[in-house]
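Hi everyone,

Forwarding the result from last night's run.
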Amino acid sequence: MTNDILYSFRRCPYAIRVRWALLVCEIKVEIREIDLKNKPQDFLNKSKTKTVPILIKKNSEVIEESLEIILWALSESKKENIKLIYFPDNKKKDIFEIINENDKEFKYHLDRFKYATRYQNSNEEFHFTNATKFIKRWNGLLAENKYFFGDSPTIADWSIWPFVRQFKIACESQKRKNYLEPSIKNWLDSFENNRKFKSLMYKYQLWEQNSQKNYFPFN
């Protein structure tokens, strides 16, 4: 194996945050874009969770959690002091807490708001209201700083903005208004308008067993 392999799905927010980390850390991987409704057998054989993203390291070790892949990317990056910049020691506890809040609580309400028909007895308005509580609280943090923990982003910002983007997309599809307050909107815009965004969301062909190799970022 000449490159680490990332199994990904373009629109998945967990996969987006991993790809963002790889971009910032300047790590090139072989990317395998898969159809979540028709998962290839090779992926199923390697993944215990059967969800993306997963990373297959050159030594065949498998990393299945997106946050663990992000931390791996920081450790593998050749960029100087990158861990100190994006994962500062004095903020680690706060970073893990806000990421856990996103992954366990905000994501719960986001899914049941965005995909209400998939969940039995789901109250779309209830989950929208509860998701909005997190948006408002995060907006409060961002009203004080450009990013969650200061003037520079950390892996907390990397990990959460794809989910806020998904919330935005859901609101737009339902023609809701005023769903993002100014500070969090500007914060999200800083990622969506970043020059890296085009590479991040490049549309790869679906991977098959005998496909030609594709690499991320695309060159």
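The longest helix spans residues 92-114.

Cheers,
N.
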